[in-house]
Amino acid sequence: MNATRRDVLKIGGLGMLGAVGGVGLPWGAGLGAKSASELDPSRMPTPFGTEFTRPPVLRPSRSIRGADGVWVDHYSVTERTGSAALVAGARTPVWGYEGLAPGPTVNTRQGRRSVFRVRNQLPRRHPSLGYEGPTSVHLHGSASLPQYDGYASDVTPSGFYKDYHYPNAQRARTLWYHDHGVHHTATNAYFGLFAQYHLHDRAETELLPQGEFDVPLTVADAMFAADGSLAYDDNSTSGLWGDVILVNGRPWPVMKVKRRVYRFRVLNASISRSYRFALDNGDPVTVVATDGGLMPRARQVGEWRHSSAERYEVLIDFRKYRPGQRVVLRNLSNRNNVDYDHTDKVMAFDVTDEPFSTRDATWNRLPQVLQTSDAMTLTEPMARRTRRLQLERKNSLWTINGKTWDDVVRSGYQDVIADPDVGDVEIWELENRSGGWFHPLHIHLVDFRILDRNGRPPFDYERGPKDVAYVGENETVRVIMRFGPHRGRYMVHCHNLPHEDHDMMTQFSVGWRPGQYDPNDPMLAAPAQVDTLG
Ligand code: C2O
Ligand code: CU
User: Fold this and answer.
1) Which atom of ligand 1 is nearest to the CA of 468?
2) Residue 440 Cα to ligand 2 middle (Å)
3) pTM above 0.85?
C-alpha cells in the first residue's frame, strides 16, 4: 500500500491503519507527493546515491585481568548530539552513542566480561519534541543481571553516568545496545540511540566469515521535516513509517563486494517497520544465525519476514555473479506497514573483480550443519507450565493480558505476569487476535525456541534460538524457554517501540516473589551516578 503522510494522519492512524491493511488506502483529494517527509523533494536522498559504510568499532579504554583470571574490557560511550549528512544542504541532528547513529560496534569474545560505561550528555530536553527523557541502555540479547539490563525505569538523567556489567558468557551472537528509557524509548531510539554488539566464540569463528567479510547491516527508516531534521510521527502510537531506508545510517547505500561468500548481520532497528527481505534476482540467501546465534542447520530462503529487533545472519554467495553486476536487496513488505515510493529497496551490492585470499576457507563455504544450543533442545514435555500472553489494544492503550508498564509502576515495581523459578522451562503462547497490526514480542533474559505458529511449524529461517517473535496478524506463536541463570525482574514487551511506550510492556520474575528482598533490584542495586568525570 502506498500513501502520503497526510493520508496516514487523516485516517487517524490506528483504527484505520488496521482496517486498510492490504486493501489500499482511501486516496484523499489534492494530496501531493508520495512521501512521509515534508522536505523539498529536490533535497531528499535517493536510492543508491551513497557509498556503504560500517560504523566504527569501539575499542576498550583498558582491559584488566580480574581476580578470577577473567579479562574485563572497560568501554566508555557518551550519549550526545551529533549530526549526519543525509539531505542536501543541511546537517540532520541525531542523538547517538558517541554522537553517531548507529553508534560504534562492540566486538568481543565469549568469556571476556565488559564494563560498559554510558555517560548521558544529551540535552535535558529533546530539541524538537520537547520531552524530558532520561535514558536507559539495554544490551539486547544478553543475559545480564536485572540492574544492568536497561530496565525502563532505571534511568540515567542528563549529567549522570552508569556502568553496565555484561557477562558475555553466552554463545556467539549478534546483540545490539539501544535505549530503553521509560515512555521515550521510541523517540530516543529513532533519533539514533542504537548500535550492534558482536559476541564471538570458537564455533562461529571457524564456520563463518570474519573481519572484512562479516558485515553489520543495521536497517532503519526515517522521515524528514522541511528543514532537513528528522520528523517524528507515530500515527497515534500505531507506528512510524518513514519514506527513507537507512543502512548503517546511510540512505539506500551501495556496497562493493568481491566474488566470494559474505556474512551479513541484519538487524532491523526501525522502531515500527517490518521488512520482507529478498534479493532482486530471486536467488536465495543462506540463513545461519538467529537472535541467539547459530542455528542447528543452515536454511536457504528466498525471502524472510523481519520485525524490529530481530537479527538474522545470512550468507550471500557473490561467486556466481559477474564483475559489474548489481544485486539489490529488496523489501517486499508485510501487512500493516505503510509503503512509499522507495521503501521497496534497501541497498545494492556491486560485484567487483577485486582480489581476495582463498586461504580463508570461508570464502566459498556455505556450511550446512552448524551448532545446536540449549534453547533448541527444549521439548514440550520439559515444560513445567504453559502461560498465555494476550497482546491487545484496550482503552486506547497497547497491553499484555490487559497490563501496562504503568500498572507495574503503580505496584511499586512488584507486579509480575509470570514467576518461574531458576531453571524452569515454560511454554508461552503469544496471541494476537487482531488483523490490524503485528507485534514483535521480546522476552528479556532468555533465548527461546519457536514451537509453532497457529499450529504450523515455524518458518525455516526461525528455526534457531530467538528472543523476539514476530506475532503477526491473527497469529498465536508458541515459544519454549528455560529461565535463568539470573534471579530477578525482567521486562517483556512489544518491540514496535511506540507500542512499547504506550504501554505494551510488563515484567516477569525469576526465582523471586513480590515483597521479597531482591539483591538484584533493577532500580536500586546499581543506580546511575552523577558524572564528575569531566
Ligand atoms: Cu531491544 Cu526490551 O528491548
Ligand atoms: Cu506491538
Assistant:
1) 1
2) 6
3) yes
